[in-house]
Specification:
Blueprint: H1 2-23, H2 33-175, H3 188-207, H4 215-227, H5 231-244, H6 249-261, H7 265-278, H8 283-295, H9 299-312, H10 317-329, H11 333-346, H12 348-357, H13 368-375
Length: about 375
């Protein structure tokens, strides 16, 4: 812009000089020439000042124009920059807005879908649970019906088994008195019948594990097994009774009787003593206690037990007989003869036969009184 201004100024000076030269008058004489030159010089100076002022004005205007143009250019550049980045910013803003809107829509849609899925799932689960519940109820009813049927059948079988057991035990009870009330002799036919009944009872128990046995049932079975000669099995039955009824007098007595038959005299003595502790006025318990003491060769104590039995039951001939055996083993001949005489008086033939063969009487066998007893 400054070069253009300088060019313009030179052109203006050249044009001004040409116009001034054309306007000057031609001189007429030599005396008038200096005045004209002076006048022209002043006018030129004025014109030059005027031109100079115009130039300054023009420069100021040009400067203002340049300044205004520069500001405008700056503004235009800024505007261009703004316009250049505006689409990008707008696009970015739109993208961010779109992303925000999309995220919000996705979140709302997701929540809505989750709610719908949850609701639908709950409905389906509820329906499935209901269906399974109904199916389970039906199956339960079927199982219940089957179970009741089987239970009824088992109950009938159980009742039949119980009835058979009662019948067998009732028959055994009629055939087998308590071991403590007999001297072990049972007719062969009766013993065969006892064996058949005990076999039936064992088969019944093996096929019915839940068959119920009372203490009295075990007591009857134990008596039958005793007379069958199955002493260990009989002992187990008596112990079942004692477990259920520890104060069963007859169970302790028969328990002692079975132990004595098995040769376990110390334990047999304890069983009889337990029976005496329960019922001290029973001659049978005192008699069993005396028998165990006799086998243990504690003769004085055995005689005392027999005396106690005879005190309670004076006509109990077996107590007299076994007391006689103890006196004979002690070599008390008079007391042995006296007791044996009393036994024979009460049950003659049975005790004569025993005295003939029993080695306990060997000490008095040569005694005339003994011979007389045997002769009757």
């Amino acid at each position: 812009m400054k070069i253009n201004n300088q060019v313009g100024l030179v052109l203006s000076l050249v044009l001004l000089s040409a116009s001034v030269a054309a306007a000057q008058p031609k001189p007429t004489g030599s005396e008038k020439q200096p005045q004209s030159n002076a006048t022209i010089s002043i006018q030129q100076l004025k014109e030059l000042e005027k031109l100079q002022q115009e130039k300054e004005i023009r420069d100021r205007v040009q400067s203002e124009v340049d300044r205004a143009f520069g500001n405008s250019t700056t503004l235009l550049n800024i505007l261009l920059i703004v316009l250049t980045f505006l689409p990008i910013l707008a696009a970015a803003g739109v993208w961010l807005l779109r992303r925000s809107v999309v995220s919000e829509l996705v979140a709302e849609t997701k929540q809505q879908l989750e709610t719908e899925v949850k609701t639908q799932l709950e409905k389906e689960v509820a329906a499935e649970v209901k269906k399974q519940t109904e199916d389970f109820k039906q199956e339960l009813e079927i199982l219940k019906s089957d179970f009741l049927g089987q239970l009824s059948q088992l109950n009938n079988l159980f009742l039949d088994a119980q009835n058979q057991k009662e019948q067998i035990l009732q028959q055994l009870s009629g055939l087998t008195p308590s071991p403590s009330l007999t001297q072990d002799y049972v007719h062969p036919e009766i013993q065969q019948k006892i064996q058949e009944l005990t076999t039936q009872l064992e088969i019944l128990k093996a096929g019915n594990n839940h068959l119920f046995f009372t203490a009295n049932d075990y007591l009857k079975q134990g008596d039958a097994l005793f007379f069958e000669g199955r002493y260990e099995d009989a002992l187990a039955c008596y112990e079942q009774v004692i477990q259920r009824e520890p104060n069963s007098f007859i169970a302790w007595v028969n328990h002692g009787w079975t132990l004595r038959r098995l040769g376990r005299y110390p334990k047999a003595l304890l069983s009889y003593q337990q029976a005496i502790a329960i019922q001290s006025d029973s001659y049978i318990a005192w008699f069993g206690c005396g028998n165990s003491l006799r086998k243990l060769q504690r003769f004085d104590e055995a005689i005392a037990s027999y005396d106690k039995a005879l005190e309670l039951q004076p006509d109990f001939h077996w107590a007299w007989c076994h007391k006689a055996r103890c006196h004979a083993l002690k070599n008390d001949c008079d007391l042995a003869i006296e007791s044996l005489t009393q036994a024979v008086k009460l049950r003659g033939e049975q005790h004569r036969e025993l005295a003939k063969t029993n080695s306990d009487f060997d000490v008095i066998r040569a005694d005339e009184r003994f011979k007389k007893i045997l002769a009757g």
